[in-house]
What does this fold into?
Amino acid sequence: MEKLNGKKKVSVAVFISGRGTNLRSLIKFSKIKSSKIKIVLVVSNNKKAKGMYFAKKNKIKLLLVNYKFKINAENKILINLKKNNINLICLAGFMKILSKKIVKSYKNRILNIHPSLLPKYKGLNTHIRVLKNKEKFTGCTVHLVNTKLDSGKIIMQKKVKVLKKDNEKSLSKRVLRTENLIYPKAVKKFVFSIL
Ligand code: GRF
It folds into this structure.
């Protein structure tokens, strides 16, 4: 961890694949003086990911990898994580499953945000399934990443009410707003527990 005036800051890498609203809210949080994180690297597996704009705008190093060659991509990622002394990885809409090699070398140091109240609705298309099952509530979860999909220890969750008039678009929009709110809070809580 990087020492700043006697205080420690955790060096964070954020992994994205798409629009990057969660990345944007983590960057905003990292800029608060009292925040204990510094985002030093953004990794994208998608050369068209809109979220890369937030890395560029904030002069954060950007690493683009091609998962068509997964072993190469992950070797490149690992080298860059080490080179930048990354202490914590935040997955923020990263649509690839990390191999055991990365998960094990960053054991208990990888967070993910998932758009459901885990352990319910692991995997993809959560909102469609929530609506189909006529759930009254859904929400989002920040959890640690282990080798099983969406199954690591839960750090923070927040409920979101499902409205009668909701469709996939309206529900995902409301859940996303909640994700953007809780991800920095969860990171703050988690980082205090490891400092
Ligand atoms: C979020 O809904 C997140 O929970 C899911 O992918 C989406 C990413 O959104 N894993 P964004 O790229 O952060 O805007």
Notes: The radius of gyration is 16 Å. Helices lie at 21-30, 52-57, 70-83, 100-105, 126-132, 168-194. The pocket of 5-O-phosphono-beta-D-ribofuranosylamine is lined by residues 16, 18-22, 51, 92-93, 113-115, 176, 179 (CB under 6 Å).
